[in-house]
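Summary for the lay section of the report: proteins are chains of building blocks that fold into shapes. Here we show the chain for Methyltransferase domain-containing protein and then a coded description of the shape we predicted for it.
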Amino acid sequence: MEPAKLDIPFVPSTAEKIRIMVKMANLQGGERMADLGSGDGRVVIAFAKAGAIAQGFEADPSRAMLGQKNIIVQGMEDVARISEKNFWKADLSEFNIITLFGITSMMKQMEKKLKKELKTGAKVISNTFIFPEWEPVQVENNVYLYVKN
Ligand SMILES: C[S@@+](CC[C@H](N)C(=O)[O-])C[C@H]1O[C@@H](n2cnc3c(N)ncnc32)[C@H](O)[C@@H]1O
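The coded shape description reads as follows.
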């Protein structure tokens, strides 16, 4: 089997960035969120603990496994899950909240995918990287909140 093609290296979000991401989501409970490139699962776990039904997509098999293990260690497996999957191939239409910590080179293509697939009112929260055309509605400490209209 070919090794997974990764668009972004693994760099974990800091606890402070995750705190801001969760705050920006303004969760009411039961929202469906997906983290695109979920690494060790820390963002997925934080959102699940804050009340979301959380899903990670991770292309690196060993990180996907680690993320799922971390979910189980935290006892969050009823509301959080990591799928070993390339996020470009994931159907994002069912999610109310998308989080990502990407890289500049992917943001144009990702803007297109998100605008095509997400429903009106869906939130996208990006750690550090901005979309080329989409205007954020909120910015804090290099975390950007976008809303699909
Ligand atoms: C910058 S890290 C962010 C990890 C986590 N979201 C966080 O904020 O702590 C990006 C992750 O995306 C994964 N990744 C890269 N390209 C991917 C792709 N095409 N599909 C799914 N995951 C991918 C990498 O393996 C890495 O774990």
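Put simply, here is one thing we learned. The first strand starts at residue 32 and ends at 36.
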